[in-house]
């Protein structure tokens, strides 16, 4: 109502006179939703409330993918495949985002292991240098293998998207 962001779900007073709300800073009634979800908007004046079909349902979709993020295994044992690591395309607000075409993702590790002593693998254990997020999907899963113990930086790259830094600890 005054141009200051308010967390979704926080009660906000908007004053009406003769059925019209007053405008404060030109932002009265502007609602910006960032989380991809189906949000239900309701109002009350502490006497009258919206119920059922009187409520506004808004479907919020993810914005355009702008980054790659990791989730899953952060530690593994030297000489053993890690548990599954998932790389997810996300919009600027952290929502999983998709693209209409396939997206190739190339992971890398700061480990000083050379050759076959470190590798990224498909979830079936096949060594691969690149992984594909299929069209219409937002994720791809992979495994990390390293025979050298230590803490390493894992990053992913794509022509248009840069992955977040992930620390991998190999024990």
Verbal overview:
The chain is mostly beta strands. The chain has no helices and 13 strands. The strands form 4 sheets. A 5-stranded mixed sheet has the order 6-13-12-8-10, with no helix packed on it. The model has no long low-confidence stretch (mean pLDDT 83).
Which helices and strands occur, and which strands form pairs?
Layout: E1 16-17, E2 20-21, E3 37-41, E4 56-60, E5 67-72, E6 75-76, E7 85-90, E8 103-109, E9 118-121, E10 131-133, E11 139-146, E12 150-157, E13 166-170
Parallel strand pairs: 6-13
Antiparallel strand pairs: 1-2, 3-4, 5-7, 7-11, 8-10, 8-12, 9-11, 12-13
Supply database-style keywords:
13 strands; 0% helix; mainly beta; 171 residues; 5-stranded mixed β-sheet
Listing every helix as H and every strand as E from the N terminus to the C terminus, the arrangement reads EEEEEEEEEEEEE
Share of helix among residues? Answer: under 10%
Main beta-sheet strand count, sense and barrel state = 5 strands, mixed
Global Rg: 23 Å
Q: How many E-type strands?
A: 13
Mean pLDDT: 83
Span of the ends, CA to CA: 54 Å
Please give the count of helices.
Answer: 0
Order of strands, widest sheet: 6-13-12-8-10
Uncertain residue segments: none
Strand content: 35-45%
């Amino acid at each position: 109502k005054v141009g200051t962001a308010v967390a979704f779900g926080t009660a906000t007073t908007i004053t009406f006179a003769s059925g019209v709300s007053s405008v404060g800073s030109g932002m009265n009634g502007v609602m910006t939703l960032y989380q991809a979800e189906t949000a239900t908007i309701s109002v009350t004046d502490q006497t009258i409330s919206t119920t059922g079909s009187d409520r506004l349902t808004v479907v919020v979709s993810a914005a355009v993918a702008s980054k790659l993020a990791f989730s899953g295994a952060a530690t593994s044992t030297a000489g053993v495949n890690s548990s599954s690591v998932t790389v997810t395309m996300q919009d600027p607000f952290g929502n999983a985002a998709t693209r209409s075409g396939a997206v190739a993702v190339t992971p890398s590790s700061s480990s000083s292991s050379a050759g076959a002593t470190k590798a990224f693998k498909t979830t079936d254990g096949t060594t691969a240098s690149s992984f594909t997020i299929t069209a219409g999907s937002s994720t791809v899963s992979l495994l990390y293998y390293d025979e050298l113990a230590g803490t390493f930086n894992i990053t992913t790259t794509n022509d248009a998207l840069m992955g977040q830094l992930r620390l991998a600890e190999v024990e």
